[in-house]
Design a protein that fits this description.
The structure holds two protein chains of two kinds. By secondary structure, chain A is α+β, with helices and mostly antiparallel strands. Chain A has eleven helices and 16 strands. Chain A folds into two domains: 270 residues, 2-Layer Sandwich (Beta-Lactamase), CATH 3.30.450.20; 162 residues, Histidine kinase-like ATPase, C-terminal domain (Heat Shock Protein 90), CATH 3.30.565.10. In chain A, the strands form four sheets. Chain A has a five-stranded antiparallel sheet, with helices on both faces. Chain A has a five-stranded mixed sheet with strand order 11-13-14-16-15, covered by helices on one side. A four-stranded antiparallel sheet of chain A has the order 6-9-8-7, with helices on one face. By secondary structure, chain B is α/β, with parallel strands linked by helices. Chain B is 50% helix and 19% strand. In chain B, helix 3 links the parallel strand 3 and strand 4. The radius of gyration of chain B is 13 Å and the shape is globular. Classes of the chains: A alpha+beta, B alpha/beta.
Chain lengths: 571, 129
């Protein structure tokens, strides 16, 4: 287009590019940063919440487990207590009574291995159970001494004579009328404890077992082996009755193992629960996945929206700048035309008077020559006079065009059918086109509305452009005239030729006065300049699009009505 | 038929005399004055049929002279001549009663034709009276 060279400058383009990038980045930052900060905070808070929640849960589980273990132990204790209260030492010394009692208890309470009555000397006087332990001397055994110190005793788990892990619940009773004590002892299989433990439901628990105060496993552990093995991570919970949480291991990914330790009351045991952090848990994974999806979606959405926004913004800016440049150039062009016009008019006027003198004098000479008799050089005189008159004729054409260019002409408005007008103009050029073997085709929109404009000036406009095209083609070529309505109030006339086209440099200057690509003396360089001025005066625009070796398109846009006072001022 | 009487008013004397001589060759009666005042003076002594009047003269403008001529002798047809491309002054000349306006340098043939047309118009007007 005519204003094609705006924004071609690398600086300007680069300036807009960096503006675009800066705007884009800052807008993305503004819209993403708050969201991501909130996201980050939520992430941290949620993680903290989950952590404390899982600790609380683990503690609750431990407390619950402890309770059920206490219940289990209490049940065994009450059996032993009941027997010791219901039977006398003497009755129990009777092996039959003891055996029958044992059989009854066994049927009722699972996990009871055997039952024994030990006298004050530490000798097992009665024994009911699967082993042959009657008469065993317990006086040297550690637990026997502990029993004597307490009324009710629950032992650690140990192998003992039976070679099966078990623990003992014993009750000490005073012999009537003596300062001596006898002991009722019940051995219980560790399985009883293990069953109780397996009843403790803890979500995602890795390990749950009992240890004694030295860290010796009292029930089997999934991670640390069988009963009576050593549990390495044990530490006493201290005085805390509700249990404590210790973190066993923590690695960079947030993997951690939590351990809850709680003392089981009135027993030598501590219940230990080992569990992985929730970070591995499904809830955490889901949360992270949602967070990530949200992150990505918001990023993409912001990117797209900001991209569109920045694009339309910079486009508008560029557009405005382009328009500003276009107006500036047009103003510059118009004022150039105006000053050149005034100069041209002045020169033309000054020259016209002496030209008129030369013209009339030469005419007079010619007249006189015709009236005089023949003389030797008459013919040569006549030829010289013709030469002078020819010269004057050429000068006259130039001065008239100059004046026409500068003239303030009144516009006479009338309804004009542009299609008819174009056919009319083509009529003037038919012979010239035929002679140069140039085909001129018409593609006219017959529904084109009539416009209100100046006939003479329109003729001049199209004559100039068509002449220009014919001159540009030279010979053997084609031109196409097209009309169409380009808007509610505008029509367009396109004049296309397949001539040699123009370089961008030529295109820039094509409407400048006195700019011509023709040889000296062949063109005044005013044709298109005048055309430009005329189109402007009629409230229209003229644009040119050209490509070297392809051709040129002139687009003349004209308003349907003359809105401004046409012909008010013209340079 | 009487010779058509033409008064040429132009400060460019060489132009005026050349035109006058050429008109005489073509059987017109031509007189030359070089300023507006002389033109009006000459009009007092003898009334021409046609006046060729330059628009731009040193003492008074062609339009003023035209007005005065039309006041004195409305039947005289005036053809304006101008070296300037101003159609506006030509047109205002026409409004003031000039027969036509022509741009310098005029084609002599055209000038003669215009003079004849102006004369015909004048003759029609006078016979109609």
């Amino acid at each position: 287009m005519f204003f094609f060279d705006f924004f071609q400058g690398a600086d300007r383009q680069g300036g807009y590019m960096s503006f675009r990038i800066a705007l884009f980045l800052s807008m993305v930052a503004i819209s993403l940063v708050p969201g991501y900060v909130i996201n980050g905070l939520t992430y941290g808070e949620y993680k903290k919440l989950l952590k404390s929640d899982e600790r609380d849960q683990l503690l609750w589980s431990a407390q619950g487990g402890k309770k059920s273990l206490e219940v289990c132990v209490e049940e065994c204790k009450s059996v032993v207590r009941f027997i010791s209260m219901d039977y006398t030492f003497e009755e129990l010394l009777d092996q039959d009574v003891a055996s029958e009692l044992f059989a009854r208890i066994r049927a009722e309470y699972e996990g009871i291995v055997d039952l024994g009555v030990i006298d004050s000397d530490g000798i097992q006087r009665t024994y009911a159970g699967p082993y042959r332990l009657r008469g065993y001397d317990y006086s040297e055994q550690d637990w026997y001494h502990k029993i004597l110190a307490r009324r009710m005793y629950v032992s650690n788990v140990f192998m003992g004579y039976r070679k099966v892990p078990h623990f003992v619940i014993a009750v000490t009773n005073k012999l009537p009328d003596k300062e001596e004590y006898w002991v009722l002892r019940v051995t219980i299989d560790v399985k009883k404890l293990e069953d109780a433990i397996s009843g403790i439901a803890v979500k995602e628990v890795r390990d749950i077992f009992l240890v004694d105060e030295d860290g010796v496993l009292q029930t089997a552990s999934t991670l640390h082996g069988k009963v009576l093995g050593q549990y390495p991570n044990f530490s006493l919970p201290g005085s805390k009755k509700d249990g404590v949480i210790t973190v066993l291991e923590e690695s960079k990914g947030g993997h951690e193992m939590l351990q809850a330790t709680i003392a089981v009351e009135d027993t030598p045991w501590f219940l230990v629960l080992v569990k992985e952090g929730y970070v591995h848990g499904k809830e955490w994974e889901t949360f992270l996945r949602r967070l990530r999806i949200l992150f990505v979606i918001s990023f993409v959405v912001v990117l797209v929206v900001v991209y569109q926004l920045v694009n339309s913004l910079t486009d508008r800016l560029m557009d405005a700048e382009q328009k500003r440049q276009a107006i500036l150039t047009e103003v510059e062009h118009s004022s150039k035309l105006a000053s050149v016009g005034r100069l041209a008019a002045g020169v033309a006027h000054e020259i016209n008077n002496p030209l008129a003198v030369i013209n009339q004098k030469a005419g007079l000479m010619s007249d006189l020559l015709e009236l005089s008799d023949d003389f030797g050089q008459k013919e040569k005189f006549q030829k010289s006079i013709d030469g002078i008159q020819g010269g004057v004729e050429r000068c006259k054409k130039i001065t008239h065009r100059l004046l026409g260019f500068a003239r303030r002409m009144d516009v006479s408005l009338e309804q004009i059918d542009i299609n008819d007008l174009l056919r009319e103009v083509l009529g003037f050029l038919e012979k010239e086109a035929l002679y140069s073997r140039i085909d001129i085709d018409l593609s006219l929109d017959e529904a084109l509305p009539a416009i209100v404009s100046d006939r003479g000036q329109l003729q001049q406009i199209f004559l100039n452009i068509l002449n220009n095209g014919i001159d540009a083609i030279g010979h053997d070529g084609a031109m196409l005239l097209e009309t169409r309505q380009s808007g509610p109030e505008m029509i367009e006339v396109l004049i296309k030729d397949n001539g040699p086209g123009m370089t961008p440099d030529v295109m820039r200057h094509v409407f400048d006065p006195f700019f011509t690509t023709k040889n000296a003396g062949e063109g005044t360089g005013l044709g298109l300049s005048i055309t430009y001025g005329l189109v402007k005066k009629l409230g229209g625009t003229i644009e040119i699009d050209s490509e070297v070796d392809v051709g040129t398109v002139f687009t003349v846009s004209l308003p349907l009505e003359q809105t401004h006072e046409a012909g008010e001022e013209n340079g | 038929m009487d010779k058509i009487k033409v008064l040429i008013v132009d400060d460019e004397v060489e132009f005026a005399t050349a035109v006058a001589e050429r008109l005489e060759i073509r059987n017109f009666f031509a007189e030359v004055v070089d300023c507006g005042r002389d033109a009006l003076l000459s009009l007092e002594s003898s009334v021409p049929d046609i006046v060729l009047l330059d628009l731009k003269m040193p003492d008074m403008s062609g339009l003023e002279v035209l007005k005065k001529i039309k006041e004195m002798h409305p039947e005289v047809e005036v053809i304006m001549l101008t070296g300037h491309g101003s159609a506006a002054s030509g047109l205002s000349g026409k409004e003031l009663g000039a027969f036509d306006y022509m741009m310098k340098p005029v084609d002599f043939g055209e000038l003669v034709e215009t003079i004849k047309l102006a004369y015909k118009k004048q003759q029609r007007a006078t016979t109609a009276d």
